[in-house]
Amino acid sequence: MNAGNSAQPFCFMVMPFGRKQTQAEPGKGPEEVDFNSLWDKAFFPLLAELGYRPIRADQETGALIINQMFQRLYFSDLVLVDLSVPNGNVYYEMGVRHSVKEKECVLLAADWSRQLFDVAQMRTLRYPLPRGDVDDAMGQAIRDALRPSIAKMRATRSPVHELLQGYPGKVHESCATGVRDQIDALEAFQADMRMLRSLPVSLRRGKVAEIREKYGSQVGIPTIATGLLRLIISCVQTDGHWQEVLTYIDELDPELAKEPFVREQRALALGKLNQPMEAIAELKQLVANDGATSEREGLLGGRYKELMRAAFDAGKTTEGIHFRNLSIQHYERGMQLDLNDFFPSSNLARLYRARNGKGDESRAETALHVTSAACQRALSRGTEKQWVRPTLLGVAFDIPDADMAEELLELVETEGADTWQFTSSLQSITESVPHVKDDAVRARLALVLDRLRVLAGQ
């Protein structure tokens, strides 16, 4: 016992309270969780059974102000942290405990939950939570799942104490030297990246080999390795460039190549190189291991769209319809996961209209409004996402809004085709024009499309 009036040890529970949205993938977990019932029916009785005095911040009579929170996190014999939903306070308090104590911090999460990237690498005890309201039977199931492992996990060392030799006293000088070397490399690399981002794609492309040569020996630093990958992707203009992306990824350190962002880009490159089935397999494995995101669902939708086009081009109508429906399903999931991500929703309108089923026109209009709002929001926030401008251009054709398309064409001519990077979107834009019912609007959009082709050098 570290502090207190009783010989009985106490455990401080770090968790949300009240009802909270889970952000769980539909069908994989409850939409929301009542964390008060989770505490009452599962965690409180479990800790009592294990011989602890259970304490939870919101159970106290007064507000747990910050100095009291620090005291609890330091003096508690055990801290349990529930990471089932993304919560800033919970993540912060976990970090404090990891910093001030070497052991006695156990991470918990519902079996369907997905943690944020850094924390996902830490060992976490999983428990069943099929519904958001915890009754007596579910509480018992949760206690049974956690009871055998908590004692074992208590001895797990904090990652801070594990990685910083000598912490919290005098940290070994070798740690500081390594950090200084990395900072020097990162500072130079980021300066070069800022310079390159200011260049048009055509000029930036010519610098890629030089930058890769300059920093090739430092790709073991994850920030530099992924920064180089982003640079290469930002300069893609041909299939040969996508092969460069794939080759770069396949030559990375195997552990770095397993990172979700890298695997997403590998799947994208495979799809662009006419290997959609391989890309789909990569993405499905990534979703199974790390959970669904709007980006991953959007990439899956794109790969099925490629299969759809190939099937229709080959006269395999039934197969094409099948792949179109799969493409729509994944784009819809992506849109539902994040309405601010314009990528999944931007692909739906054309697919709905091509399918032309009951309610599809209404669905197309909704998807276009979501896409337009997401693009406008991204531009207003000064986004560096390279596809936001061509996506907005595509929206103008899909609505269809000839005035908007002509205004955007003026911006393309003013800012340059490199800034807009619309070449890869021309095929989708071309597919939209025949679906425009108004003859005058269709004619105006066709003229804009012709001009865009000239600007793209086609």
UniProtKB/TrEMBL annotation:
Pfam families: TPR-S. The lineage of its organism: Bacteria, Pseudomonadati, Pseudomonadota, Betaproteobacteria, Burkholderiales. This is MAP3K TRAFs-binding domain-containing protein. It comes from the Bacteria. InterPro entries: TPR-like_helical_dom_sf, TPR-S.
